[in-house]
């Protein structure tokens, strides 16, 4: 069973407002809805990471970036969806991602049985929900309530370390446009202008 997880728990400081609700002109979907629709083509269930969203999964170790969202999402899956054996993770802010990129991950991930991402890009990411991945995530975050101590060590909570630590693979992207992400008002404006020109 393949689940999808949208990482939508960021604080969007550079954007100045929650990126999840920015609405795309070409399909009138919010960035959150757009990501959910993309995942719905191959995944069920589709989950959302981020306490600010209805039914969003709350980070167990907040303010430590995307790994805390992945960690909480996998823990939620273990509790509520024990039949899920694989997971695709997408961020909220890559509106150009398509089914093509997801299928590339799925094909290679199912062949290799390991984490699969793309060269130089953290997302999207294929994660097999298997023992070594679960053990890695269980051991990644200290069992402490001291968020301050965790923040001092946040460099260890990187996607790169996650993939490398589990001998994952990275694919060569066929193009870079699908991986453009939206972090600032200027990038959002540029994205909208490019879509209008098409």
Characterize the structure shown.
The chain is of the alpha/beta class. The chain has 7 helices and 6 strands. The protein has helices spanning 31-40, 66-80, 99-112, 131-140, 147-151, 159-165, 185-197, and strands at residues 2-7, 46-49, 86-91, 116-118, 121-128, 169-171. The protein has a 6-stranded mixed beta sheet with strand order 2-1-3-5-4-6, sandwiched between helices. Helix 1 (31-40) links the parallel strand 1 (2-7) and strand 2 (46-49). The longest helix is centred in the middle third of the chain and has 15 residues, at 66-80. It is globular and about 45 Å long. It starts with a strand and ends with a helix. 35% of the residues are buried. The model has no long low-confidence stretch (mean pLDDT 87).
Please give the oligomerization state of what you see.
single chain
Strand order of the largest sheet: 2-1-3-5-4-6
User: Main sheet, how many strands, which sense, barrel?
Assistant: 6 strands, mixed
Strand content: 15-25%
Radius of gyration: 16 Å
The H-and-E topology, N to C, reads as EHEHEHEEHHHEH
What's the count of strands?
6
Query: Overall 3D geometry?
Result: globular
Question: What tags apply to this protein structure?
Answer:
six-stranded mixed beta sheet; globular; 7 helices; 37% helix; 15% strand; alpha/beta; 198 residues; 6 strands; single chain
Summarize the structure.
With 198 residues, this protein is of the alpha/beta class.
């Amino acid at each position: 069973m393949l689940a999808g997880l949208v990482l939508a728990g960021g604080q969007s400081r550079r954007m100045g407002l929650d990126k999840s609700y920015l609405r795309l002109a070409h399909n009138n979907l919010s960035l959150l809805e757009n990501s959910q629709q993309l995942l719905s083509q191959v995944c069920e269930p589709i989950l959302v990471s981020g306490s600010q969203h209805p039914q969003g999964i709350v980070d167990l170790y907040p303010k430590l970036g995307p790994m805390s969202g992945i960690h909480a999402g996998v823990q939620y899956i273990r509790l509520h969806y024990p039949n899920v054996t694989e997971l695709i993770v997408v961020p909220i802010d890559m509106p150009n991602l398509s089914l093509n990129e997801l299928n590339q991950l799925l094909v290679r991930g199912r062949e290799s049985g390991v984490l699969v991402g793309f060269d130089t890009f953290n997302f999207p990411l294929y994660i097999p929900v298997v023992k070594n991945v679960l053990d890695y995530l269980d051991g990644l975050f200290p069992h402490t309530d001291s968020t301050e101590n965790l923040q001092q060590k946040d460099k260890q909570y990187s996607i790169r370390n996650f993939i490398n630590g589990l001998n994952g693979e990275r694919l060569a992207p066929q193009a870079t446009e699908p991986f453009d992400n939206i972090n600032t008002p200027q990038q959002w404006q540029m994205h909208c202008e490019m879509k209008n020109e098409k």
